[in-house]
Amino acid sequence: MTHFAFPPPAPSTVPVEGGDVVFPVRRILCVGRNYAAHRREMGGDERDPPFFFAKPADAVVALLGPGNVPYPSATHDLHHEIELVVALKSGGAGIAVEAAMDHVFGYAVGVDLTRRDLQAAAKAKGQPWDAAKGFDASAPISAIRPVDKASVDGAIRLSVNGQERQVGQIADMIWTIPEIIAEASKLWTLAAGDLIFTGTPEGVAAIGRGDRVEGAVEGVGQLDFTIV
Ligand code: MN
User: Fold this and answer.
1) Residue partners of 18: CB distance under 8 A and separation at least 6
2) 79 CA to middle of ligand 1, Å?
3) Residue 112 falls within a domain, yes or no?
4) How far is ligand 1, taken at its centre, from the CA of residue 200, in Å?
5) What separation in angstroms does the CA of 123 have from each of 58, 156, 191?
6) Ligand 1 centroid vs 166 CA: distance in angstroms?
7) Average pLDDT, the chain
8) Residue 114, exposed/middle/buried by CB under 10 A (0-12, 13-18, 19+)?
9) Cα 215 to ligand 1 centroid, rounded to whole Å
10) Fewest Cβ atoms closer than 10 Å to its Cβ: which of 52, 83, 86, 158?
């Protein structure tokens, strides 16, 4: 009989609003350049479709109230990207757009923290983005609001030290929520526990130690953390 070489790590979890239930995180997928104005600010071509990258499941920092997020190593240009997060209760491969919403458990507010300097270096050399995007504590996230209690047709915004940096509308996403799920399921077999960060509107910029970051998605929730 086989057994674990060492105790397996506990799964990363995100609290679900309104009770003592937590959502076990299986995987984090992220959409790049899903808002036209952000695609422009990143130098993207208008014809380029959005695309995916990933973060490890243990990158989540679940925030129920004000919290702290550590400034990561190896960067001098940490950027905020406020994003709507879709949490899946089921999945599959080759999901049709029309069936995609059946797999949604709920929504949360997330920040796709980015080592922008490492991302620029990776782009210049044609290297992968893992060190730029998938570092420890790179995915602060609010509690998940169950789908039947959420609405996702409002504003998305982020402020730093009380000054608004990013504001947009979920309706401005290039790929809609069902399209994101359908597109992702062409590339991976999705499953319960998957989180999908759906992209950020324009206004991404640097943050440093001591900065207080407040983000919100109307109808979904908010998060509040200080970089330490
Ligand atoms: Mn992003």
Assistant:
1) 146, 149
2) 10
3) yes
4) 5
5) 25, 27, 30
6) 13
7) 97
8) buried
9) 14
10) 52
The alpha carbon of 3 and the centre of ligand 1 are apart by a number of angstroms equal to: 38
Q: Is residue 6 part of a domain?
A: no
CATH number at residue 83: 3.90.850.10
Query: How big is the chain, counted in residues?
Result: 228
Q: Which DSSP category does 136 fall into?
A: T
Task: Tell me the pLDDT tens digit for each residue of 47-65.
Answer: 889 999 999 999 999 999 9
Give the Cα separation of 9 and 191 in Å (integer).
20
| Cα-to-centroid distance, 20 and ligand 1 (Å) | 29
Chain position carrying tokens 């953390």: 225
pTM: 0.97
Provide φ and ψ at 99, rounded to 5°. -100, -5
Would residue 20 count as lying in a domain? Answer: yes
- What integer pLDDT is reported at residue 19 of this predicted model? 84
Answer whether residue 47 is part of any domain.
yes
Distance 92 CA to ligand 1 centre (A): 24
Looking at residue 20, its pLDDT comes to: 93
Q: What domain count does the chain have?
A: 1
7 C-alpha to center of ligand 1: Å?
Answer: 33
Q: What pLDDT digit, counting tens, does each position of 80-137 carry? A: 999 999 999 999 999 999 999 999 999 999 999 999 999 999 999 999 999 999 999 9
The residues that bridge with 145 in the sheet, in sequence order, are 107
